[in-house]
From TrEMBL, chain A:
Full protein name: Uncharacterized protein
Compositionally biased region (Basic and acidic residues): 1-19
Region of interest: Disordered: 1-29
Keywords: Membrane, Transmembrane, Transmembrane helix
Annotated TM spans: 35-54
TrEMBL record, chain B:
Protein's name according to its UniProt entry: NCS1 family nucleobase:cation symporter-1
Xref: Pfam families: Transp_cyt_pur
GO molecular function terms listed in the Swiss-Prot or TrEMBL record: cytosine transmembrane transporter activity
Family the entry assigns: Belongs to the purine-cytosine permease (2.A.39) family.
This protein's record includes keyword Transcription regulation: no
Transmembrane segment boundaries: 21-48, 54-76, 97-123, 135-156, 168-190, 210-230, 242-266, 286-313, 325-348, 354-375, 395-418, 430-451
Keywords: Membrane, Transmembrane, Transmembrane helix
PANTHER family reported for this sequence: CYTOSINE PERMEASE, CYTOSINE TRANSPORTER CODB
């Protein structure tokens, strides 16, 4: 019984790996535009805030 | 099978990634907003006044979020990876057990702190309202903490669906309560008392104090490393995850930490925790909102922490087969219960060191992940080797360990220690211009980039250079588990 379950699980994992190895079935990664926005919000803005805050 | 997938054993199909921006923001805020915000704000209040402290907290946490986001989110949304599995390419199939241990101890630490806070707040209210005598304080603290753990375990029986549904409710409730408490503090103590208060442990070197504040908040952001992957794996896109993650783990934390900053400045003996003095000022009328905040926020965060730890346990196929979901969450929470009962006081007293060590370890981990995912592999991973281990798979390296990853981590950690002692906060001269976490991450990144072609050249070329990313190893499910 345990072998049957193990085989079923392995089969399911195999099917998912097969399917998700195709780029069209994967999620979105980081684009150049995302990186630009991220850098503006989490690097440029905080550095400016720190420079302004220093004079408070 | 779908239940097994979302509980960690299998990679997720797109149709199983059901968290929209609101659920993701809710869970990020629910995970991050907790009473540690009081401690973080309290620490900043040792070094900085209200104005500078507020700016530093917002800016510092966003700087840390840059590293965390790059290291965790795109890899999580593209491949549906949680934290531990996402380190297989950098540390090796067996080397990733190192991050499993790190994640376990990190979430154990945070969860313990939170249930200690729950217990202390519950005891404070029960004693202040006359329901229990002072003599019962110690036992009540432990009892309330244990009840909180049982509640979390019961809630987690619903798996990630429970998180998706409960997280946003908890987040909205705690953010509203936090704004109410900030208003209450300003109203009761007076803004001028807060704004004019001097930090109690300022060094006299303004730039050093300023940078210590920034460092503390960067370390706070880095300490989300164990949590992020567990949440963003349910989101299908990096772009749609960006603002929920930055707002939930970054801005919300900074704003709620203002409570700790203002409390620590106006009432230094509070250490940032407003519960006691709010009860003294206004009895239960003021104490109950604080108690509600602590209970809701800490239970919400402990849920995500225990969920991340249980998920991490189940990434190993052998453990996954033997460990039902409820037992995995029980193990994660049981360890917290043991520390709560036997070690709560020493743990609570050394929280600052624990926080600092988050910066020590997670900064360099982010560094090697960024180097590997973007610069070495160009955002392409071998899906099969992420889930299957054994000689011949892409992330097996030497005996399952990537020496380059560990050497790079060591270089990053060494850099951190050269700049800042995380226990005494003694800093090298350069620290006040650079912080410690940022150079530590940068050093790990550079060393990884330099050593990879030297030690792993052929292996990496075969994956990234030819653009092959899928099924390169040729391993099968049954054959590759070694």
């Amino acid at each position: 019984m345990s072998d049957i379950h193990t085989q079923a699980r392995d089969g399911e994992l195999e099917r998912r790996l097969e399917e998700l190895s195709l780029p069209e079935n994967q999620g979105e990664g980081l684009s150049q535009r995302d990186l630009t926005v991220l850098t503006a919000v989490t690097v440029v803005a905080p550095v400016i805030a720190l420079l302004v805050g220093w004079n408070l | 099978m779908q239940t097994r997938a979302v509980e960690g054993a299998y990679p997720l199909r797109m149709g199983e990634r059901t968290w929209g921006p609101f659920a993701l923001f809710g869970n990020c805020a629910s995970a991050a907003v907790a009473t540690w915000c009081f401690i973080i704000g309290g620490y900043v209040s040792y070094y900085l006044p209200a104005g500078k402290g507020s700016v530093v907290m917002l800016a510092g946490i966003l700087l840390g979020m840059f590293l965390i986001f790059l290291a965790c989110v795109p890899m999580g949304t593209r491949y549906g990876l949680e934290a531990v599995r996402s380190t297989k390419p950098q540390l090796g199939a067996r080397g990733s057990y190192f991050t499993l241990a790190l994640l376990f101890f990190s979430t154990l630490g945070w969860n313990t702190l939170l249930v200690i806070f729950c217990g202390r707040a519950g005891a404070e209210i029960l004693i202040a309202s006359g329901l229990l005598p002072e003599a019962a304080r110690g036992a009540t603290q432990i009892g309330v903490g244990l009840v909180a753990l049982v509640v979390v375990w019961l809630l987690l029986r619903g798996g990630p669906a429970a998180l998706r549904n409960i997280g946003p409710i908890v987040a909205i409730s705690v953010l509203l309560l936090a704004l109410f408490i900030i208003g209450l503090i300003i109203n009761q103590l007076g803004w001028s008392a807060i704004a004019d208060a001097e930090p109690s442990f300022a060094s006299g070197d303004d730039l050093l104090d300023y940078t210590i504040g920034v460092e503390l908040l960067i370390a706070t952001a880095l300490s989300w490393w164990p949590y992020v992957g567990a949440m963003v794996r349910f989101s299908p896109s990096t772009r749609s995850s960006m603002f929920p993650v930055l707002a939930g783990l970054g801005i919300a934390v900074a704003v709620v930490s203002f409570i700790g900053l203002y409390s620590g400045l106006a009432v230094p003996e509070s250490g940032g925790d407003p519960t006691t003095y709010l009860v003294e000022l206004g009895g239960l009328t003021f104490g109950l909102p604080a108690l509600a905040f602590i209970m809701l926020a800490n239970i919400g965060t402990t849920m995500v922490g225990a969920y991340a730890a249980a998920l991490a346990f189940k990434q190993d196929p052998t453990i996954d087969r033997k460990l039902p979901w409820n037992v995995a969450t029980g193990l994660a929470l049981g360890a917290t219960a043991l520390v709560l009962i036997f070690l709560s006081t020493p743990f609570f007293d050394n929280f600052g060191t624990f926080l600092a060590f988050s910066g020590v370890m997670f900064g360099p981990i982010c560094g090697i992940q960024i180097a590997d995912f973007y610069l070495v592999r160009r955002q392409r991973l071998d899906m099969r080797s992420l889930y299957l281990d054994g000689p011949g798979t892409a992330y097996w390296y030497t005996g399952g360990v990537n020496l380059v990853g560990f050497l790079s981590l060591a270089a990053g950690v060494g850099t951190y220690f050269a700049l800042l002692d995380p226990i005494t906060f003694e800093a090298a001269g350069l620290f006040k211009y650079t912080t410690a976490s940022l150079p530590a991450a940068a050093m790990a990144l550079v060393v990884y980039l330099v050593l990879t072609p030297l030690l792993n050249g052929k292996r990496t070329e075969s994956l990234a250079g030819t653009g092959r990313q899928q099924g390169t190893s040729g391993a099968s499910v049954r054959g590759a588990r070694g």
